[in-house]
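Final report, results section. Input specification for complex C-07:
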Amino acid sequence: MLDCDQYLLPKSLDEAFGFLETHGDAAQIVAGATDLLPWAREGRAGDVHIPVLIDITRIPELNGVALEGNRLRLGAATVFQKFLKDSVLREHAPVMPHVAVWFADDQLRQSATIGGNLVNASPAADGTPGLMALDAELVLHSRTGGERRVNVTDFPTGPSFSVLNNGELIVAVEFDSAAEYGASFEKVGHRRSLVISTVCVATVLKLDEVGQNFEDVRIALAGVGPVPVRLSECEEMLSGKTVTAALIDAAAHLPIDRVQSRTRQDYRREVVVSFVRRGIVEALASIGCDVGPFETQELETANG
Amino acid sequence: MADLNISMTVNGRAVEKSAAAGSRLLDFIRNDLNLTGTKEGCGAGECGTCSVFVDGVLVKSCMVPVAKADGAEIETVEGLAPRRQMTPVQRAFHKTGASQCGYCIPGMVMAASATLRENPQADLEEIKQGLGGNICRCTGYQKIFEAVELARDVINGKVPETALDEDEVGESFIGANVRRLDAPSKVTGALRYAGDMVVPTMLHLQVLRSPHAHALIKSIDTSDAEAMAGVEAVVTAADIPGEDGYGVFVHDQPTLATDKVRYVGEAIAAVAAETEALARDAVKAIKIEYEELPAVFDPHEAMSGGPILHDYAQDNVTYHVPIRKGDVEKGFAEADVIVEQDYDTQPIEHAYLEPEAGLAYEEADGTITIHSPSQNITHHRHAASRILGMPVNKIRMIMSPVGGGFGGKEDMHYQCFLALAALKSGRPVRYVFTREESIIASAKRHGFKIRYKMGLKKNGRITATEMYMVSDGGAYGCSTEGVMRKSAILAAGPYDIPNVKVDTIGVYTNNTPAGAMRAFGALQSEFSTESHLDICAEKLGLDPFEIRRINMMQDGAITHTRQKLGSVSIGQVLDEAEKVSGWESGAPTVRGPVRKDLGGDGNREPCTLVPRHTTTASPEEEVA
Ligand SMILES: Cc1cc2nc3c(=O)[nH]c(=O)nc-3n(C[C@H](O)[C@H](O)[C@H](O)COP(=O)(O)OP(=O)(O)OC[C@H]3O[C@@H](n4cnc5c(N)ncnc54)[C@H](O)[C@@H]3O)c2cc1C
Ligand code: FES
Ligand code: FES
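Structure output:
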C-alpha cells in the first residue's frame, strides 16, 4: 500500500520545482498514478511510505496540445485517452490513436499519462514506441539544469531507468506533424483489454509523390529487449525503394536477432516477423496503398 | 500519515471530510463515506469493480489518489438513480439476469452507463470496448451485453419501456425468463458483502503469512506488536483453545501454523488493530525464527522419497483411489492398437471477484457470530466448535453474500482466527483479503499429470482403459480426497469399456493447497479422456463422433464403479452437438486445410486480435 505524509498539487512549474527543492529525496513525482499505485503492493514493492508526493497533472505547461507551424507540442501529463478524442492529435500524430486503443482500457486511459509511461520505462511500454516512430523529442526541465532536449530513442536506458536526472521533469513532447503519414500499431499480449504487451510494433511511414516508393519509414519495436528500439535496419532497407511484398517480407526478417527478452524467445521471434510485416502493410493500407498477397503465411491468430 | 481536507460533491450532495493524504478515492468512498456499492476486487486497476464517475469521466477509483478528486463531482452506483428507483441500465440488468454473484455488477452498471452516455447508439462492438476494463467471473458476459443492448434500445425509444418489465410466466417456470429476487440490491450497490459490513467499535485484522515453502518455526515473538498502541489482539496457534485442524475431509490444516509452515502464504499470526494500516505495521513487528527445510513442488518427486510434509503421510500421499474393472492386461492383449499419451493440467485460480472477507463478534451471551462468504457453513460451524472449544450452539455462522466462490470458498481458511481475535479483543473484528493474499493463500484447482493408455479394436471399440493420475494437492488436504474420488468415478467418461484400471493419487507438495473448483476433479480426467478419443479417432481413421457412438453407454449401463444408470443421454447429446455445430463428418485426417464447419450458423468466430481503431471515423462517431 502507498502511504504519504503530504500530497502536493503545484499549479505552476515554478511551484513544483520549489517543492522538489524543499523536499529533495523525500519527494516523488506522480502523474496518473497508474504505475505508482500498483507498484506499491504485495509481490512488488509492498508497503511503501513516500513522505511527499508531488502531483504534476495540474501544471499548465504539462497539459495542452499546441501546433506551431509544422511542430506539435503536447504536455507530458497528456492522458492516453486524449489521442482518441483530440482532433489535432488524431490528425498530426496518426500512430497514437492506434496505440491508445490498445492501451489498458477506457478508464485507465483517462488517468495514464505519456510522461509516466516514458519515465516508468517498462520494456513493454506502448506509448514509448509510438513516440519513437514519431521521432519525438522530449523537453526536460530542472531548476538547476534548466531546459534540455532528448530524443525519445535515447531516453530509456533499461527497465525502469532513463536519462532523467533527480529533480528533473518531462515537461513536454514535441515532434513534426505526421499528418500525411500512414500509421499502425500492432500489439500482442495475453488477452484483449488490459494487457501488457508481449511484443508491440509502431509504424509511421510516408510514400513519395508518385505513391509507389517508400520515402520515410519509421518502425519502433517494444517488448523484446530491455528498452524499445527503432528498427533502423528495416527502415534503411525500405527507404527510397519501390513498395513490393517481397521487399517488405525481406525487411521484416531483419530484426529477428533483436529479440533478447528472457522468456518465450522463439514465440517472440515469430511474432516479430509477422508483426513488422503486418505493421508496414497496415500503415500502407491506412493511406490507401494495397500491397497485395504475401508468399509466406500471415500469422492471423496472434494469441494462438 | 497526515490528513487532507477534501471537499467534493458526491451523488449531488456536498461532502467535506478529512482523509489520509495517501489514500485512494476508493478508500474515501468506501470507508469515509460508507458508500460500499463501489467494490475493491483487485486494488490494481485490473477488474473495474471500483469504477466511478469523476467530473463525468469514468475512472477506476483504486487508481486515483483522493487528493486528485478534491473539488470534483463524484457519481457512484448509489447515485445513478433516486433511492428505490433504477435507471434503464439497472432495470435491464435485472431483466436479463445479468447479475449473478453481483460483485462485478456495480462496476459493470457504471461502465455500461458511461458507454451509453458517450454514445446512446453504441453497437455491440462499442459496448464490448466500453466494458473492456471490467471483469465478470460468473456470467460469461453474454447476459450483460444483452442488458446493455436492451437498455440502449429503451433509452433510444426503439423498444417500449415495458420491455424492462418482468415477463409473464405462463404454465411453467421452465423456459420462462424469471428475474432474480436479489438483482435490484446488486445493480444498485445496496447489497453488503462481508467486506462491506461495518459495526461500531470494529477492529481490522491483518495476517502474517509464511515467506517460506517449507520451514520449521523455531520461535514467534509478538511482544513488540502487542505493545503497539491501537493493537487490541495478536493471535497465534498458542491461543487456540480447542482441538485444532480443519479441512473438508481430513483435518490436517492448522488454523495458524504451529511448529512448521508448509507453503508460501500460510497464516502464522493475526493482528487486530484500530486501523488496517496499524494492523499491517504490527504484523511487520512480529519476529519469527525459521529453519528452512528442503521443499518439494512436484507430486511425482514428492511420492518418490521427497521431503515429508506430514508425519502421518510418510509417502506424501493424501488420498489414493484405485478402481479396477475386468482385466486391463487381457483387454490390451485383445486390442489392435494401443494408444498412449500423457496429459498435464495446471492449477487454476478461481479468481472470484470478491476476495475472501469476514466479520466476527461476540454476542452478550457468549455466542460468537462469524459472517463470511462461506460455501459450507454447517461444516464450518461444527469444525469451529471443535477448534474454538465451544459448544456448537454458541457458534453462529452467517453466510454473507458470496461474491463468487466456484468451490474456492469451501475451506475455512480464516474464519477461526478471525473469531479468536474477536474473542480475545472483545471487539468486533473484520478481515478483508487483498487480491494478492487471495491468490497466495487459498486453495486452487488441482493440477493433474495423467498417463493414459487405451486399447482399441480397428473398428473403434475400446477394449481397455488405463489411467494413472497423479494430482498436486499442495500442502494440505482441503478437498483433495473428494476431488480424487470424483475424478476416478468419472475418469473413463460415459463409455462402456470392459476393462478399466483407474488410479487417482492426491499428493502433498509444498505448493499452494488445492481444493474444490467447479467440476471437482472431473474436468481434468475428462479433458484427458475426450482428448484421447480424438487422438484415437485420428489414428483409426474414424469420425470423432463415431468413435464416441461406438463406445457410448446405453440406458441401464453399469459404470466402472458399478453404478447402474437408469437413462443415459450421451447419444442425444452427440446428435444435438453434431447437428447444431454443422459438423463436417469424417476422420480428422481426411479434412483438408480448410474446415467447412467453422464460422457457420451457431458457430462463434475464432478469437483473433483485430485492429480496433479506424482512422476514418470522426471522434464523434467513434467510442474507443
Ligand atoms: C491495469 C493496468 C493496465 C495497464 N496497461 C498498460 C498498457 O496497455 N500499455 C502500457 O504501456 N502501460 C500500461 N499500464 C501502465 C501505466 O498505465 C502506464 O505506464 C502509464 O502511462 C503511466 O503513467 P502515469 O501517469 O499513470 O504514471 P505514474 O504512476 O503517475 O508515474 C510513473 C512514474 O513516472 C514518473 N513521472 C510521471 N510523470 C512524470 C513527468 N512528467 N516527469 C518526470 N517524472 C514523471 C513518476 O515519478 C513515476 O516514477 C497499465 C497499468 C495498469 C494499472
Ligand atoms: S480495478 Fe479497482 S479494484 Fe479492481
Ligand atoms: S456476477 Fe460478475 S463476477 Fe459474479
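DSSP finds eleven helices and 14 strands in chain A. Residues B 99-105, 136-139, 353, 404 surround FE2/S2 (inorganic) cluster (ligand 3) (CB under 6 Å). This concludes the modelling results for the funded period.
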